Amino acid sequence: MATATVTYPEASERRRQQRAWYFYDWANSAYVTTVLTVLFSPYLASVAETAACGAPGTPERPCTQMLRIVGIPVSPGSLPLYVITATSLLSALLLPFVGAMADRSGHKKNLLGALAWIGAAATTSMVFVAGTNWLLGVVLLFVANLCLASSLVVYDSILCDIATPDERDQVSSRGWAFGYLGGGLLLALNLALVQGHELVGLTTQQAVRLSLASAGLWWAAFTIIPVVRLYNRPPIAVVAESGNAARQTLGQLLATLREARAYPMTLLFLVAYLFFNDGVQTVIYASSIYSSSQLGLGQNVLIATILLVQFVAFGGALLFGRIAGRFGSWRTILVALWVWIAIVVTAYFLPARQVAPVLALGVAIGVVLGGTQALSRSLYSQIVPKGREAEYFSLYQACERGMSWFGTLVFGLVHQITHSYRPAIVALVFFFVVGFVLLLLVDPRRAVRDAGNEQPAVL
């Protein structure tokens, strides 16, 4: 295919827009860390348990009553996991339509802002989730998660407009680094508020609710920067379709899916990403239960490890961006996957009730976490056809969110069979090995050439 002719802004203007673009990573990471990773799931479970049993459950006296959702019995403690799973599966179906809409619109930054501010409003409204009002919490979590996923499709696609092929590894890495720093900073402040709530005259529940609201306000406020400073660009490679906007969007999406067979290396990368990213996400999800239930470590150690990973990942993303600048993102990701395999195997041998080895492993996770995610994004941006970036990034996000349950399923099944989390954690090696083998089969130069894009100097 012919190489796409793309006009980028001048270097000084590109840097200005790149700095503005970084701030959306900074903005939405506050929601990911404070709400999704740490505070909202246990809080929503406690509200649901209060509704079902009159009070939150405890390890000694767990809540055994069920909630009824359209006649289906649901354990209060499992409610947040079911909501996240449902939104992940719905996202996998919805995001391709969002991507097609973004590619046709020519107003990507406006769409980014609209999605972000709806999600931020839902997050800020979590301050009203109290007492037994679990249903409000479910609706708000559902809306916020869908808006986050949709906004990331638009955000990731903008990378192709503001960075040349040779700049993307570094720009993507800086964005991820900014996100880890911003998310970690607000999380540290919120955890300090929750831990020291009595010093400011608040109950634990009030401190948690204020922390949730702060994540929404942070998300909304810092989204203003990219929306104001980024430029919209006219769409290219638009499929001619008659009818209303919905029909045109559907026609664009169907055309993209039909043409996807012309990019076998891009599709192979997506399958590889599906596996190794599922391994990464499962390690993150499983780390808390592994530390507490298998290693016997307390909440304070878990909090310290989470914060350590966040801030080390800031430096790790920047480091991997520099390494990729010399050796290429494809080779650097392959090396990172071997590091992940070593991390998972090491976790199997961690001694119980020993804090130092857990913190050391947290440092290793932080170093490789940001680099794996940032370089996957930048490499993928090189191998998607011009004018279809949002649609292809919607497939990227759909692979991440629609299949992110497979690793947790394997983790749960192995634990159920063996009654131990040690074989469950080491079973995750499978995802990294399969991802490594599939990524090894990807020819990145051919993928760039097939997509009709400019070849970067290092890939």
Nearest-integer average pLDDT: 86
CATH topology: Growth Hormone, Chain: A
What class do helices, strands and sheet pairing give?
A: mainly alpha
| Helix segment tally | 16
Tally of domains = 1
Order of adjacent strands in the largest pleated sheet: 1-2
How would you spell out the order of helices and strands?
A: HEEHHHHHHHHHHHHHHH
So, the CATH homologous superfamily?
Answer: MFS general substrate transporter like domains
What's the main sheet like? 2 strands, antiparallel
Distance between the termini: 19 Å
CATH architecture: Up-down Bundle
Instruction: Tell me the Rg in angstroms.
Output: 22 Å
Strand content: under 5%
| Low-confidence runs of at least 5 consecutive residues | none
Shape: globular
Helix content range: over 70%
What is the CATH top level name? Mainly Alpha
Notes on the structure:
The chain has a two-stranded antiparallel ribbon with strand order 1-2. A hairpin with a 2-residue loop joins strand 1 and strand 2. The protein is 76% helix and 1% strand. It has helices spanning 11-53, 79-105, 108-124, 134-162, 168-195, 204-229, 245-259, 264-294, 299-327, 329-348, 355-382, 389-402, 405-418, 421-426, 429-441, 444-450, and strands at 67-69, 72-74. The chain has one domain (16-450): Up-down Bundle (Growth Hormone, Chain: A), CATH 1.20.1250.20. The longest helix is centred in the N-terminal third of the chain and has 43 residues, at 11-53. Helix 3 (108-124) packs antiparallel against helix 6 (204-229). With 459 residues, it is an all-alpha fold. It is globular. The chain is built from 16 helices and 2 strands.
